[in-house]
Amino acid sequence: MRQIHISSYRPAGFAEKYQRLVADTVIPYQYDILRDAVPGAEESHAIKNFINAGRALRGEDTGDGFRGMVFQDSDAAKWLEAAAYSLAVFPSDELEREADAFIDVIAAAQDEDGYLDTRFTIKDREKRWTDLLEAHELYCMGHMMEAAAAYFEATGKRKLLDVMTKCALHIYRHFVEEGRDGYSGHPEVELALVRMYRATEERKLLELAKHFVDVRGREPYYFEREARERDWEVWGNDASDREYQQSHAPVREQQDAVGHAVRAMYLYSGMADVAAETGDAELSAACRRLWESVTQKRMYVTGGVGSTVHGEAFTVDYDLPSDTAYAETCASVGLIFFAMRMLEREHDGEYADVMERAFYNTVLAGMSLDGKRFFYVNPLECVPGISGAAATERHVLCERPGWFACACCPPNAARLIASLGKYAYGETHDTAFCNMFLAGEVEFANGVSLECSTGYPYGFEVRYDVRSGGRIAVRIPGWSRNKFTVELNGQEYVCEPEKGYVYIDAEDGDRITVTLDDAPRYVYASPKVPALSGKIAVERGPLVYCFEGADNGGDVLSLSLRRGGRLRAEKFDPNMLGGTAVISAEALRTADPGALYTSEEPERTPVTARAVPYYTWANRGVNQMRVWMPAE
Ligand code: FUB
Ligand code: ZN
Questions:
Q1: Number of structural domains, the chain?
Q2: Both 547 and 564 in a single domain?
Q3: Could you report the per-residue pLDDT of 175-186, keeping only the tens digit for each?
Q4: Of 25, 59, 204, 621, which is most buried by a Cβ count within 10 Å?
């Protein structure tokens, strides 16, 4: 039986800290960005685009028209979706008023026939639906559908849901009833339509999602024909690069994760949704195959995916360079979406392990500790002077900018953090699943309710006080499989995890205590990854650690770790980097021989190297950073 999302989660601990940061800082900051009220930040114009589209529809002067990326609408949609999740956790009249007012503006920007995309409403109305390869109409509408469903679920208000249902039915008419060819160059609408179907029970929306999944990659090839038939383009992307938008084969036949990483993650998530709703075993098998390709051969240890800047894309198996990594924040958000859907399909802790890997490392690293600066690219090594400067590393920044002209990542991180509860807790009709260890109070729709208390990801004892009993499944992470204990009311509870979960029939008032392995550990990469030969990394719990100049005399490049050397987790320091625990490691420092090459054996001195969680890096100015260290 499919896991569904929990009915309510009230955060505490680490999750509360982050969700409050999103509510108090990130959402207001991003709203100001969207309405161009942050001096010095890249212009967004996203809200003005909606206002101007409304003017265009009323035949008024459209002022400064449309500005920004062709997918600028999606930044605003993701912000609204984050606001919806945040309202569900921390009700706020002010935020709800702002969101309602913005929804009025969005509704006024919808064309009579249901079409909603400000770029084509303000200008080039006749070009609608003629550049599915690049123009992102279905992508933007998909994001607004997700926002609509989330806002309806959070507030019970239907206005945006009705707007986006009308929009989805417009798309249905165009592509299904009127039989127009095509599908989105950037997947997103597929998963959004399933979400809308679940919120509205309108079956046409599921049919449309299935249609887009089914027609993708079929012959005759759509995008080349479309390119021949139109006399305009957005950027001039190569329509014959079939892998870039995952249309090189019908999705059921696709073998490897290829092309643009965010597109891939959203597509696979949509495929998994359609498979779940239709019981399509072939589609489900394709999802599993693609999952294995991503996670067993093409994923960074930080849960980053898409290793090259060229096309923001996957390359080939085991090509995971640290210094030129792309690992877009959005791609890891998408990987979490995909992982969640795989977990819904099959209760296997493997999926939640990846969810945590991507969340605690790449997604959190995508945002500064103060919630005001963001990484788009998430390298595993940063060397000021080379990173950002060398032609091969122009995309690798050593500090987070405040915003981007292409601002897909910041609101994506915000919506993920604000909705973390639905990834952490899931349920079937008879089981409450605790997938991640998020402190807080949870009420499941199946009647179970509990309170989770833990200092995770820095504390490794997780307590569940069961208020209303039932069958509870608690994940035992892969990294703790060899060392964990479970107690029920203080007594050892002897159990073997089944596919990464222990199942406990709990009564009202029971206390379940799970203690996980708190030891820091080394991580070794497959010898098939050439970039990682002879290197090791350090992890503790779900956190990948990195070595920064700030903790290591400014120089990380001359450090190597002693293979098998002792790792020591220092005490949690609430004043360091927003609250963290440093790990110290036995290391050697190699003296600089003063020449580019030398035949003299350089001098080495034993030292203690200090590592901090990867998600905290680059919060202390420009700085060297390494995740994978030479080992000897
Ligand atoms: O194309 C829309 C978004 O912009 C993608 O998902 C990101 O990778 C960025 O290219
Ligand atoms: Zn992005």
A1: 2
A2: yes
A3: 999 999 999 999
A4: 204
